[in-house]
Structures are given as C-alpha cells and as structure tokens.
UniProtKB/TrEMBL annotation:
Transmembrane spans: none
Gene Ontology MF terms in the entry: oxidoreductase activity, acting on the CH-OH group of donors, NAD or NADP as acceptor
Alphabetic keyword roster: Oxidoreductase
Pfam families per UniProt: adh_short_C2
Family the UniProt entry places it in: Belongs to the short-chain dehydrogenases/reductases (SDR) family.
Organism: Pseudonocardia thermophila
Name of the protein described by the UniProt record: 3-oxoacyl-[acyl-carrier protein] reductase/2-[hydroxy(Phenyl)methyl]-succinyl-CoA dehydrogenase BbsD subunit
Domain Ketoreductase, residue spans: 3-176
Amino acid sequence: MALVTGGAGALGAATGLRLARAGSRVVLVDVDGDGAERAAERITAQTSLPVIGRKADVTAEADVERLIAEIAAEHGRLDQLVNAAGRNARGGFAEMREDWDQVVAVNLWGPALLCHAAADLMGRHGGAIVNIGSRTWLSGGPAAYAASKAGLVGLTRALAVELGPRGITVNAVAPSMVITPFTRRDRSDAEFAAIVERHEAMSAVPGLASAEDVANAVAFLASPEARFITGEVLHVAGGAQLAPRP
Ligand SMILES: NC(=O)c1ccc[n+]([C@@H]2O[C@H](COP(=O)([O-])OP(=O)(O)OC[C@H]3O[C@@H](n4cnc5c(N)ncnc54)[C@H](O)[C@@H]3O)[C@@H](O)[C@H]2O)c1
C-alpha cells in the first residue's frame, strides 16, 4: 500500500502512476481533494488499477491522523509513504513573514506529521519513506523554500536513524527544475522562458528533469531493491546540484 501526498500535483501524480505500475495499491492525497480524485481516475484509466484519491491537508494533524487510521482500517498496512505536497514563495527575504510559516508548514511540518502518524503502521512490517526535497536545499533559492527543503533533509536523516531499527528506510529525492504548474505559476511567458534557459544552463546533462525522471528515482528508493539505503539524498538534477558552469 502506497500513500502519496501532493497527489493532485504533477510530481505526486507521476509518482502514483509509477508506483501503481510497479504493483503498489496507491492512495493519492491532496488538499485539493477533487484534483486527487481526478488524478486517481486518470491512473486507473491508464493501468486498470484501483487508485484512490483523498482530501487532506498535510499541515492539519487531525487530517493526517484520520488518513492513516483509514488506511489502517481499510488496508491493514502501509508500505510506502511519499511526501510530495509542496509550496513555494518566490518573494525576497526582506518582505517575507506569512509566507515563511506557510511554506515551512507544508514542506517540513507536513512530512513530519505524516512520518509520525505512519511510523507505527509501517513499523509492523517495515516500509520506505521518500521525501521530495529540492536541489535548492544545497544550492540555495527562495529563502523559506530552500530552508524548508534543507530542513526536510535534516528530518530525513534523523528519521533514518530513528526508524531504521523498525525496518523503515527514509530517503529524499532532490529534483532540479521540472516544468509543472508549480514552476509555471505566477510567471509571464518571458519570465518563464528566462528561468527555463537559466536552469538548462546550470545542468551538466542537457535539458531539464521530467516528472517521470523524479518518479523513477522515488520508485527505486521505495522499492525492495533499495532496502539497505537510508538517510540519502538522491539528486535528480542532471548535475545542477554541483557548481554551475563558469
Ligand atoms: N516542479 C519542480 O520544479 C520541483 C523541483 C524541485 C522540487 N519540487 C517539489 O516537488 C513537490 C511537487 O511539486 P510539483 O511540481 O508536483 O507541484 P504541484 O504544484 O503540481 O503539486 C503540489 C501539490 O501539493 C498540494 N498541496 C499544497 N499544500 C498542501 C497541503 N497543505 N496539504 C496537501 N496537499 C498540499 C497542492 O494542492 C498540489 O497539488 C513539491 O514538494 C516541490 O517542492 C518541485
């Protein structure tokens, strides 16, 4: 049984599809419950597998606990948890205040709540947690976003140590820019073209990452093939996590 947050989003839905194709029963969860249901229906249409869409806010402890209790009651187990729900704030550091709390709540507190609520159910038989970070944890970026994603790496490493004895691995996947609503939102065509060009120039491997590139990395870390890998950050960044070319 796999639970993917941010399941209405581009990377969450691509990951849900990839995990379903690998044989997992998948629940997609999103604060946009209708979007999660639509994404689940699309995957079911593509795979003939019964994927479920559910509404939950990952920052609301009651939502998260209800969700895990429902999975325990309906399925009796949870093998894979992917924390893909995310939020960005692109403004400068100087004018930031509310944004900071919201970004950190979704990107860091949400995964912490999910991991906390899921650990007992997963610990009955072992499992894999994969947190979707970002290249910016290492290279920097918008302050609240980069700080939340660096915090997520800290959480990943701490929980890898704490949950390992219960048979649970905890890893992160850190993508560079993928063209999704997340990166397209609130940008003019010219701004977007400039940002794409800048990211392509930072990448050693030509081009940008795709949602499928990210989903493949998540699926590996969530699979039995990665059973002895924990506490790692797997960059899906074409080398953009290294120094940009001079
Ligand atoms: N697209 C990129 O370039 C890129 C690069 C690096 C990392 N990431 C990370 O990948 C993840 C997915 O990004 P995406 O491109 O698919 O974005 P997206 O905007 O398509 O999807 C994000 C999803 O998270 C959901 N969400 C937001 N707040 C939530 C909450 N409180 N509870 C539940 N769901 C909530 C949104 O409704 C949305 O469906 C994010 O964590 C993002 O930081 C994206």
